[in-house]
Amino acid sequence: MFSLDTVVAELSELDSRRKKLINQLSAAIRSLAGGESLLMPGTLARGGRPARRAAVKRKSVRKRKLSAAARKRMSEAQKKRWATSKAAKS
Q1: Which residues constitute the domain of residue 31?
Q2: Strand boundaries in 1-90, DSSP class E
Q3: pTM given for the model
Q4: What is the pLDDT of residues 5-31, one digit of tens each?
């Protein structure tokens, strides 16, 4: 039979593990959201209004410009892959 002290100690340990996991999940969500937590709103400042957040600078993505010939080669290669995949299923 468990004593009350043992139960309290186990519950306390579980609570600390829960807090640690929540912090890790929050950090992962912030990381995936680019620093902005979409699932967990910011804490409220005094007066019940949302706290201000620092602006997050994101790296601009440079788009590659492909020539028409390159796009055609890519298209033909993909069609060839689809054909071999379809032939394997039949």
Answers
A1: 1-40
A2: none
A3: 0.35
A4: 889 999 999 999 999 999 999 888 888
